[in-house]
Amino acid sequence: MLSAQQLLSTPNRRRPLRSLRQQYDLYIMDRIEHYKNRISREELLRQADEAMIDLRGDEQFLLTEVLAQTAVDEYIKKRLGIRGFASWRKSFPKLRAAQRDPTHWGLAANHLVASLAPRVEPDDPVLVVGCGAESCAYLLAAHDTAVTFLDRDFGVVGRAEDRIAMESLSSTFEAICVQFGKWLPCISGNYQLVVLDAGTLASLNPNERRVLLAEIQSLTAPGGLHALVPDALGTGPEGLAGHYATWQRESVPHAGRRARGAPSRGALFVKPAAEVADQRQGVRA
Prior knowledge:
Layout: H1 4-9, H2 20-38, H3 41-51, H4 64-80, H5 85-99, H6 112-116, E1 125-129, H7 134-141, E2 146-151, H8 154-166, E3 173-177, E4 191-197, H9 198-203, H10 206-218, E5 220-229, E6 248-250, E7 267-270
Parallel strand pairs: 1-2, 1-4, 2-3, 4-5
Antiparallel strand pairs: 5-7, 6-7
């Protein structure tokens, strides 16, 4: 992820975007896997039998499993009416441009995360925490980051998985149900950007909030950014600044004149480049 200064001074990204061919192959994989996950095992086996009709009698016994997998995937592509690469390539730029518009996800054009999106780079690891930041996760996935979305509600996690699959962004997205302040999965860490829903944090008891923030801070890369965003009810991040006493506060990007009494757009905190070793030790003491 680029810093605000690097964004101004760096003419080219450090990492290039995937080629259109790579993105098409990921799109195909997303559609096929999502389809398989939504039908029963019996139905999948029935379709596999139909797909194998043309392979029966093939003498390449050692390749049977590979051929079967390929045949099933091709069969599913036909059932889904997936277009070929040449046709998809013509429509993809328009689709991706729409997905990178914050209003596509119900976010305001001046939303804090929308102003941060130009700073993320392909495959930057990003963590999004809480249902109030769900749309932020979608927007960041559309910018080719590797998004991990956490929430405590199975319904929210399932909804996120379905929406992201419908938009063919699953290859850059993972949703996990967790117990905030009590249990986090073994996630990779080294996150360049973390987006936190202030409403979710406000709903936790003080100890759960302390534990959650300490764990997530320890999973953030040195120089990484935490964006605390208000939820739909306008719950702001002002009361959470005490958890970032050793971090640098960064100014929220300018987005026009703010009307008196307008709700907060959020807060930004940057992790020091040299952080005290392993914050996770003693967190639960």
